[in-house]
Design brief:
The structure is a homodimer of 494-residue chains. Chain A is α/β, with parallel strands linked by helices and 494 residues long. Chain A has 16 helices and 18 strands. Helix content of chain A is 39%, strand content 14%. The relative contact order of chain A is 0.12.
Chain lengths: 494, 494
């Protein structure tokens, strides 16, 4: 029954007038359009709980005034040529009470609509139109263990449906939290219990949750320079005063951290975004000292820590932290795909339940089926097998990329080769990165300066603007090698 | 006067903040215990030598944050269920990982961990332990079309995996937005385009998104009284000054709305939560006039609008709104199950993209597989078939419940019978609702006063505290009839 009419016994008008007025109002406001087939009078009467005669009288009046027309042997329709509304009549129709004349500029909705701000670039705008795309963080599709994943998802649906018809724990599915805690111990040196973990809808949701829990009372947000856009834009737009802190070959320059009390520091120690460098152990320890000294909070974003090719896994800051200063942020966007929207925060048994209360207040938690399937994927060992497979594949692609750059662009510098899904490439000549990016694009090859590749670069005077970000995980080895060769020829390197 | 409060004129805080802070501290330190009767505001004001208004404001804030509760016709008490975590434990609990020598009290993480606030009750705490549970909003599991859903989910995984390895549109899957727009026109009188729709992770995520987009600059949040906890607690805890507006048998008392400019009004017109009453058409129109006059924004939460048994579907406020004042909030939590975490906002072609930008900044959008499966479920007609089936089932259960109440508790009043998944029941005798709730619980039957059933009741002087919320959707007819009979015998009605 498509007609949204309401009959009100306490309305002063007769029932037929209520039907008439409302149908006419729907027609005049174009919500019932010319040619729309009206329901039969019997059906509408039943539906509204009024006598059929009431509807018949209203229909007759609508017919006589030209709002409806009958097509013999077919039915009653909204008229093709609608009458011009008589001015006085229109004012009387209920909907005309509602103001087309009202100025709209100052309303809250206008304010919302007018709010324009930068958001993080998580995909290249030309994605899909490129022949080869080195966008950082692109995931390889073909290596996904689809058969196993389908089997697990279907099994959960078949046997766990009672979980779909209820609200889950806003902190996250307990099996998934346990599986994550089990995974993080050996993989990242993070000793944590399931109760320390909060499931979120990806890293960005985790950052948003932490920002809500902190509240904004003029607290300083310190970030690496250059920095992942999603963190910088979020905290910046929420009104946190932002302070960039430089990054060099050993990661965040800890000595340059300001002595601000109760600050929030966002940092990517495993594989700095975008430069790929790793925060050295001495700096990690000094960083934790700084946090204790200033009573500050560290957000450790380990966005691609699952991929490590050299030097063994580093102990995460959260694993070194003895004073409870670190919130560790993990994601399945790189290992499983960002379409999953699944990540986690590791806090303490005190901060995690508080974050979970905020999670409840903000969104009542995370979808069940995705959590349940991921828990089984981890528990069954399928995730580890999947990681081993793609680690080996990504490593080979990295090696081919480094070799090709060395061969075709001798004198280049490579940063961030030890892990992750992208590296940072500095050309032998200064100031040529953007030009090469433009040249490559003419042949459908996407390479990206840090600013075009999802990073913020706040201050001048260093050479980060000269870096090219090269995501290699989603591109086959021969394609990588050919693309670098093509770029060399475009660049006149023969 | 047992309250050892000190009002200090030289304290930087306002007088009401001093009262609030000190009473809260007494509660948190267990010096004021649950159930303690608070002195009347006039008495306390006299005692402290402040105006009565000062005390009233402090009490309101304590009520809204869950430290105090009102028992209608009795008085104000320290809440029985204090917001987590349990005070007392809080200060003492040591953290295993915590370095003993590091002072922790002032850190941001401590601040997060110590933040105590009430969150919405979306499930009965004793769920699963009850023989019969009339918790409002419970969904019937057995009626879910599992075979069809599994087939659709698996098909999407098999053929659409490329969507899992990429970020989707933060506004939501376009097919899903189109399917929702197609559904809402006929079902709710809402004419909208796919571009007006933003996909969110359920109603609560939608509210949170809207709150973020509005920002908080002391803007007034107006809400029905009684009101859905999730909305009241969210906006209250974000610092919006909250103003309750009374509800009677025709819904929100529009005449009682304050003439505050640029306010935000949260309203449930289809089936008011918790009373179940429907906002009359004249009031809908006057409400829109009010919004235009005051440049205010209306959030229309249509949480169970898919279920209508009498009187035809009402045109949603968003369908009547010609001035772009309404954001319509819809959810699949009732029709498909809250474990799906899927809902939507219908704004305009201007507000929706702005909300989508916020959605991106907050969480990079909604999981792909759930959106893709729901889109096909809608497009294939399976959703309509499912709705028809459960509507008929819920209607029969409602009828049995109304009959049983009429038979065993003659003289009762029933509100909210025309739609939804619960109705509100007023016993023939005043002030007996809580007693019957306790009696029923002894036999494993869960019935709920509005305050225990997920609603906030802010002010005195009306009879809403006497209503019992009866969710009938998930309980079979014979079980409903038997449970009402048992309660009648427990209550000495033979």
């Amino acid at each position: 029954m498509p007609l949204a009419l309401v009959i009100d016994g306490n309305d002063g008008r007769t029932l037929q007038d209520q039907v008439f007025d409302q149908v006419r109002a729907l027609i005049l406001s174009s919500r019932l359009k010319s040619g729309y087939p009206m329901p039969g009078s019997r059906l509408l009467a039943e539906h509204l709980g009024v006598s059929r005669n009431t509807v018949t009288i209203a229909y007759e009046k609508l017919l006589s005034e030209g709002y409806l027309e009958i097509r013999p042997n077919v039915g009653t329709f909204v008229a093709r040529n609608l009458p011009d509304p008589v001015p006085g009549q229109q004012a009387a129709a209920p909907l005309a009470l509602v103001h087309d004349t009202v100025p709209r500029a100052d309303t809250l909705l206008e304010r919302i609509a007018a709010s324009v701000f930068p958001t993080q670039a998580v995909e290249h705008p030309a994605e899909g139109k490129l022949r080869v795309d080195f966008w950082p963080g692109r995931v390889n599709q073909r290596s996904f263990p689809l058969t196993e994943w389908r089997r697990i998802v279907d099994g959960k649906l078949r046997h766990g449906l009672h979980n779909q018809i209820r609200y889950g724990n806003p902190q996250g599915d307990e099996k998934l939290r346990r599986a994550i805690a089990d995974h993080l111990g050996p993989a990242r040196g993070v000793a944590c219990a399931p109760d320390d973990v909060v499931i979120v809808g990806g890293s960005q949701d985790g950052l948003s949750l932490i920002a809500r829990a902190i509240g904004n009372e003029g607290r300083a947000f310190l970030h690496e320079n250059p920095c992942y856009q999603g963190a910088r834009f979020l905290f910046g737009h929420l009104g946190f005063p932002c302070h960039p802190v430089p990054v060099d070959r050993d990661g965040l320059v800890v000595e340059a951290l300001p002595e601000i009390r109760n600050a929030v520091l966002y940092v990517t120690p495993s594989h700095q975004f975008p430069t790929g460098v790793t925060l050295s152990l001495p700096r990690r320890l000094r960083l934790l000292e700084w946090a204790s000294r200033t009573d500050s909070l560290i957000i450790e974003d380990d966005y691609d820590g699952d991929f490590r090719y050299e030097g063994g896994p580093l102990t995460a800051l959260r694993g070194l932290d003895r004073a409870g200063r670190v919130l560790y942020l993990g994601t399945f966007s790189k290992s499983m795909g960002p379409g999953l929207r699944l990540g986690f925060i590791v806090g303490s048994d005190r901060s995690a339940p508080a974050l979970a209360r905020w999670k409840k207040l903000m969104s009542n938690g995370t979808p069940w089926i995705i959590q349940a399937a991921m828990a089984e994927f981890l528990d069954s060992g399928a995730f580890q097998r999947h990681l081993r497979r793609i680690r080996a594949m990504y490593r080979q692609r990295r090696d081919v990329l480094i070799d090709a750059i060395g061969q075709h662009f001798p004198g280049s510098e490579i940063l961030g080769r030890r892990g992750g899904m992208h590296l940072a490439w500095r050309l032998p000549e200064t100031g040529c990165a953007r030009r090469l990016q433009q040249l490559a694009l003419t042949q459908g090859i996407g390479i990206y300066t840090v600013e075009d590749g999802g990073a913020c670069l706040s201050a001048h005077g260093d050479r980060h603007g000269d870096l090219l970000m090269m995501g290699y995980a989603a591109t086959e080895e021969d394609v990588i090698a050919r693309a670098i060769g093509i770029m060399a020829r475009l660049d006149g390197r023969g």
